[in-house]
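Record 1 of the preview.
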Amino acid sequence: MQRTDTIERFFDSGLKLQHLRILVTLADLKQIKAVAQAFNVSQPAISKRIAEMEAALGIDLITRAGQGVDFTPFGNVMVDRGREILHQLDHARKDFDTLLSGDAASLSLGVVTTVTPVLIPEAIAAFRARAPNTSVIITEGTADLLFPRLEHGHLDLVVARNPAPPESHVLRSTAIASDPLVIVVSRQHPLASRMSPTWKDLKGNPWIVPTTTSPVYHALIELLRKHGLELPSGSVESVSLIANIGLISRTSLIGLLPRTLANEHVSNGKLFIVPLDISSVLGRVHAVWREKDLSPSGLLMKECLEYCGRVYGRL
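->
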């Protein structure tokens, strides 16, 4: 227990970046003399630093081997982790330079259609205010297509209605906003004139739905089945919000829209929100990224998304 406390104390307050630099350089150059030359200090100064670490940890990190050194298993751990830390710090320095200068900086953002209208424009406006020289490339699609592209490094960040797949060992996610989907019809649709529509009133009405591979589609089908309904023939598949709004307002199709967007078209008299509970259909919006691989511009965009999510789509 005492050794554990000693180790925790060292990592909490005793470890310095210079310690890591010395160990990593020693692993590369193999000799304390060569490390001293690289740091332009005396050999005793390097030996003293290493002795400080070993005394603080109560564990040997190296053993002498002639004119060189060998690392103990604990020393190897320090070198491996230290190399990672120094590598990430070097990336941080370069990324700071990139953000400050804006030279060739870009961010690839994947978004699902149903989060685009309000949250994304506001988040990008906030992002551009802080990083005006960084280009933003938006790719729109369904989560089942965007997540693989994110995993393979073709996208920096994805905004979707479902979190990272639980089977993924690479992706991580966080909920950033609540923007429930609602059922909408045209103002001329029979459902718009019913005082208290029920699920049975939807029977036989064709829908406009996202592609069959999308998570929203599967959630909708499951909800319809729960109420004894099926998707009827004559339905339309589409992931274009512009086309969807036009079709819903001009035909008898039933559709889904984010509440923030639906409210706008209710106000202008084009659409009617059918007051049925569909809160189980992916009402939250998530930011999804690759673990340990979010660039400073990606981190900044994530912060902007979280801020705008709090303002425009409260959790």
